[in-house]
Design goal:
- The complex is a heterodimer of chains A (256) and B (307).
- Chain A has 10 helices and 10 strands.
- With 256 residues, chain A is α/β, with parallel strands linked by helices.
- Among the domains of chain A are: 44 residues, no CATH class; 84 residues, no CATH class; 39 residues, no CATH class.
- The longest helix of chain A has 20 residues.
- With 307 residues, chain B is mainly alpha-helical.
- Chain B has a domain of 213 residues.
- Classes of the chains: A alpha/beta (256), B mainly alpha (307).
Chain lengths: 256, 307
């Protein structure tokens, strides 16, 4: 059974059809990518699957459960982690706090415990901190734990976001253009991190990318989205040769 | 020197009231970017709920059904009233503000003013226009500390307020809810995607703010035991000024500015006729805000993250 399955998802913003008849299957441990030109609706698809929007039609099955209509926080706590295209970090919170915050749904202690500092609260918060430090270590930013995020260079902020997405222990990770705006060096490191997550943690990853070169290196299967519709799907080699994809990226002239 | 210390103690007492109320304004602003203009009236409701609880418990004690000593009644009154008032706050959020979360902030602010009027007039309708007297739970004792006179009530008020503020600080810094509240100051969009339910955090913030306002209301009623349905207006506005002065959304700022407001009011009052006290005190604050428009700990850019 696939970990994530989307069937015939369609979404309208008013009269505008943003996504049309979108289908997707991701097996546990698989890396897949969604590519496409600006404005094709890639981020909309992420927003639909993470519960920010509810699709007009279609089903989304995560780990055997239909998640259409669930609130974003319920979707997230069912095992879907996500990063954002334009870094969405919380200014003036520290790196460690970002990651600990995202462990909210993994903690169980109640308000009484919170007010009176029960043993359960202290134990859970301590375990949460240890787990957060582990993730920062994995991202190679453990030494920055007590820095506020606004002080960090861009590449490090990206890693904070990645650690935060992993903190809720997702089964599948959605990455929205994780390498956008990076220097070549930062980009290489980020590719290394994504490979590590895939190989060592066995995470399923669904990636939005702008640049073909990156997905070609990382992914087993790629979908190409243009104007809300998947125009091509296949292995990197197939996608690279597909005339429709070349047309969408380079214009009609290039095909002939 | 004696006069100074005497004024200092009064200033601490008033500062406690302002700080406790200002916290509610500031925390709600922090997460919803909205000043809950009904908050002063929550302070009033808290005082009235405290009146009900205290009267009930005193009556039970007098009948001998539940013979509690007065200090236990006092502690219970504060705790039970904080608890009950927090539900009033949650109700205000649920009915008044949640449906307007995507609406322009001005609409929500006007809703707040209306909720305030409803609470005042609702109280008037239920209990009538007569002022009520808060039962005297602790006998006033005055200590003479080298010419400075301190009552046990003032000590109690300042100590309880400081304990509540420290507890709040601990809650915000060290618990998952507190962290969620702080993160929610920056966005609505990412937080749910990290598994945090926004509505729960919004309810909790109103509950905390209202609980603190109730504590302020009861302690105010202990110091000045005559209550009417409109006491929330003037103190609400003054605490609102403290919240602005401290910096919108800043818990630390609200506490400090609450006390500063108490100090300015009392010390201006000590050297000026009482008729011009507020005029001068609030002109000083206006002047501070001219130079620090975002308050002490406020942020110039308070727009939330959007996707």
């Amino acid at each position: 059974m696939p970990l994530l399955q989307v069937e015939n998802m369609t979404h309208y913003f008013g009269g505008l059809r943003a996504v049309h008849n979108f289908n997707l299957e991701i097996e546990p441990g698989q890396i897949r990518a969604l590519i496409g030109p600006n404005g094709a609706g890639k981020t909309t698809i992420f927003n639909l699957m993470t519960g920010i929007y509810t699709p007009t039609e279609g089903r989304i099955i995560l780990d055997g459960q239909n998640i259409v209509g669930l609130q974003p926080h319920s979707v997230a706590s069912r095992g879907l982690g996500r990063t954002f295209q334009n870094l969405c970090l919380w200014r003036h919170m520290t790196v460690l706090e970002h990651v600990m915050m995202a462990r909210y749904s993994r903690l169980t202690y109640g308000l009484v415990g919170a007010f009176f500092g029960t043993a359960l609260r202290n134990r859970e918060e301590a375990a949460s901190k240890a787990k957060a430090m582990e993730l920062l270590d994995l991202m190679d930013i453990a030494h920055l734990a007590d820095q506020t995020v606004t002080n960090l260079p861009y590449g490090a902020q990206r890693r904070v976001e990645m650690a935060r997405a992993l903190a809720s222990e997702p089964k599948i990770l959605f990455l929205d253009e994780p390498t956008v705006g990076m220097t070549p060096e930062e980009l290489d490191q980020m590719l290394g991190i994504i490979r590590t997550l895939h190989r060592d943690l066995g995470l399923a990853i669904y990636l939005i990318e702008h640049r073909l070169k990156i997905v070609m290196e990382l992914c087993e299967r790629i979908q190409t989205l243009v104007f809300g519709e998947v125009i091509a799907e296949g292995t990197p080699e197939e996608i690279q040769k597909n005339p429709k994809v070349i047309e969408a990226y380079l214009g009609k002239e290039a095909v002939h | 020197m004696q006069l100074f210390l005497q004024n200092l103690i009064n200033a601490l007492q008033w500062g406690s009231f302002y700080a406790l109320i200002a916290l509610g304004y500031s925390m709600v602003y922090g997460i919803l970017m909205l000043f809950n203009f009904a908050h002063g009236d929550i302070f009033m409701v808290g005082a009235y709920i405290g009146f009900g609880v205290a009267t009930g418990l005193t009556a039970l004690a007098a009948m001998g059904t539940l013979a509690l000593p007065n200090w236990v009644i006092l502690v219970l009154t504060i705790l039970i009233s904080m608890f009950l008032t927090s539900f009033v706050g949650m109700l205000v959020e649920r009915i008044g503000y949640r449906p307007l979360r995507e609406a322009p902030r001005a609409s929500a602010a006007i809703t707040g003013l209306m909720i305030g009027i409803i609470l005042e007039t609702g109280n008037l309708a239920i209990l009538g226009a007569e002022r009520i007297r808060f039962p005297s739970l602790i006998k006033s004792t005055t200590y003479d500390l080298g010419g400075v006179f301190v009552t046990n009530k003032k000590i109690m008020i300042v100590v309880v307020s400081l304990v509540l503020m420290l507890a709040l600080n601990e809650f915000i810094r060290r618990t998952r809810w507190g962290m969620a509240m702080r993160a929610m100051a920056f966005d609505y969009v990412v937080i749910p995607l990290m598994g945090v339910p926004l509505n729960t955090i919004a309810s909790l913030t109103f509950a905390l703010g209202s609980g603190l306002a109730a504590a302020a209301g009861i302690m105010f009623a202990i110091a000045y035991p005559v209550l009417d349905p409109y006491i929330g207006i003037i103190y609400g506005w003054k605490a609102f000024v403290a919240a602005i002065l401290g910096g919108r959304g800043s818990v630390k700022g609200a506490c400090l500015a609450g006390f500063l407001l108490g100090f300015i009011e009392i010390f201006v009052g000590a050297y000026m006729p009482s008729s011009v006290r507020d005029l001068i005190a609030y002109s000083i604050i206006l002047l501070i805000l001219v130079f620090r428009p975002h308050g002490f700990f406020g942020e110039p850019h308070s727009a939330k993250l959007r996707l």
